[in-house]
Amino acid sequence: MKHQYSIILFMLVCSLSLFGQAGKDTYQFLNLPTSARIGAFGGSNVSLRDSDINFSFQNPALLTAKTHNMLSLNYANYIAGINFGSAIYGRNFGKNYMAYGIHYIDYGKFLETDPTDQILGEFTAKDFAINIMYARQLPKGFTVGATLKPIYSVYERYKSFGVALDLGANYTNDSIMFSAGLAIRNIGFQFTGYYSIDGQQHRESLPLDIQLGISQKLWHAPLRFSLTMHDLQRWDLSYRKEEAGQEVVSTNTKAADFFDMLFRHTIFTVEVLPHKNFYIVASYNHQRRMDMKAPDFRTAAGFSFGAGVKIYKFHIGFSLTPYQVGNLSYHFTLSTGLSEFGVK
């Protein structure tokens, strides 16, 4: 009975460690959006540099003089009873910008049963990552940054420790309201895997993601457009699975032509900015659309929507992301500048 129970737990660990977009990497929670605004941006943006400290989760070079003393709390109600969130605080020292954050995901409670379906108890599965961010402002509009991310993961009695590093750069030209960013995310490794084979740690790779993006605000209209290219380290993003030891394209997708594969790497975003204290966002993520679309069903998979407003001294954000029919993710953000309360 113990042997069968171990097999069930082993399968759970493997499935959760592969959580994400058809990848074989572990710690896939690192790619989840960390705020309502980022969720509304289709899940990622590495170019937009303003007072929103949450963008530094995507690219540490997006820390600015305006993120000093900014505090943000984020929560998301994900699909299948999964919840995740983050918190971040910024502190500047001259032209040296720093931020400290935490990112977590709670997969919920699972029933522990024996082979006869008798309930023995419950167990949980969770991932955590601490974010220590640093950015340095350089001449001529350039900023560079790095994030160190110690990672702890526990699925029942299976535990894993790892570390990841993000590297980023940003160029901003306020005179033409243009910015561009580059981020190399999740460089790292596992110190310890979830299990051992013949006394040797089984270690998995991390979800490396190279991203490049641009943002442009219009002069005579309250609009800003962003284009983010993700997963530039690999070309083929079609969903794949293994059958009989061979990797094949999933039956849920068809062979993608050149332009379809090119668009799988892109996220398009448009912001409506009628006032400095209010915004509306809509985006389209083609990779998510192709992965989540269902035959014979019309869905809004791939699209994300959001809005934010400043009330008194607080910024409140909300976003909505459809994944499949009946599966929606809601994201909430509450941010404030502690300087407005007298904190120096």
Topology:
Blueprint: H1 2-17, H2 36-40, E1 70-77, E2 83-93, E3 96-113, E4 119-137, E5 142-155, E6 158-173, E7 178-192, E8 196-197, E9 200-201, E10 209-217, E11 223-229, E12 240-243, E13 246-249, H3 258-264, E14 266-275, E15 278-285, H4 286-292, E16 303-311, E17 314-324, E18 327-337
Antiparallel strand pairs: 1-2, 1-18, 2-3, 3-4, 4-5, 5-6, 6-7, 7-10, 8-9, 10-11, 11-14, 12-13, 14-15, 15-16, 16-17, 17-18
Task: Give structural notes.
By secondary structure, the protein is mainly β. It has helices at residues 2-17, 36-40, 258-264, 286-292; strands at residues 70-77, 83-93, 96-113, 119-137, 142-155, 158-173, 178-192, 196-197, 200-201, 209-217, 223-229, 240-243, 246-249, 266-275, 278-285, 303-311, 314-324, 327-337. The protein has a single domain, classed as monomeric porin ompg (Porin, Beta Barrel). It contains four helices and 18 strands. A hairpin with a 2-residue loop joins strand 8 (196-197) and strand 9. It is globular. The model is unreliable at 1-22 and 241-245 (pLDDT under 50).
